[in-house]
Write a structure and sequence with these properties.
mainly alpha, 1 helix, Tetratricopeptide repeat domain 33
Length: 90
Amino acid sequence: MASFGWKRKIGEKVSKATSQQFEAEAADEKDAAENEDGSWVHASKRRKETLQEGCKQKSKQLKDEGASLQYMQQKWLLSVTHTHGSLGKL
């Protein structure tokens, strides 16, 4: 079975300009990757905040509806008990 390996040749000369250019490109790619990660995190946080605000509004709406329905039920029960005398006769 054949195997593959990578070895650096000792004594191989690489020009400083090529080396510096490679390092600069690697640094630019690293910065670009960090910026992409940062914008993704911020977008995720904004989306989460928006969803939480929507949930708070929905929760408040449901609480208000529940309180309103409870009040209406109490009024209905009072009107029924006054009309019929007690709930047992319904």
